[in-house]
Amino acid sequence: MAPVAIRYHDDRDALRDAAARQSRTTHAAPEAVDACVLYAEMIADAIAGARRTQVLAQRAGAWSGTIAAISAGSWRNRPRAEINASGYVAHSLEAALWSVGRTADYRGSVLLVANLGQDADTTAAIAGQLAGALSGVERLPAEWVDRLAWKDRLVAAAQSLLAP
Q1: Which domain holds residue 141?
Q2: pLDDT by residue (tens digit) across 97-121?
Q3: C-alpha span between 61 and 128 (Å, rounded)
Q4: Residue 70 near residue 93 (C-beta atoms within 8 A)
Q5: What backbone torsions phi and psi does residue 118 show, to the nearest 5 degrees?
Q6: What is the CATH number of the domain that holds 144?
Q7: pTM over 0.85
């Protein structure tokens, strides 16, 4: 979702459309589509400079199934033992929001959710998108960024998405 949010953070109709279409390429179930749209909106809000509390606030909408509860904050104040990181879209979204909501920075969010186990690479990638948008590139762990494969290509791609 991060590329969609980067590209369309200032055009919410296009953002929702692109997020839904991206989901449908592999997961067309209503919960999957709504999870992608919801998360793209959150990432876009962070990119646009919204405060963490605003980004993580309850979100109104006609969300499908479990996504409605997650958007209302079902992940808040849940103990670790109740967070499932199975890879199912609702579990992954909830685990990502739980980790971002419980930590103050990118590193903490990614490590917390990855250490839940299960589908750790998926949930860490999901959480990392929002945590990164909230932190900003300048506050990402330099030792992690420096080790990225294709770092220059990724930076150029992100910059091109921001261009008008």
Answers
A1: 2-162
A2: 999 999 999 999 999 999 999 999 9
A3: 24
A4: yes
A5: 55, -115
A6: 1.10.4080.10
A7: yes
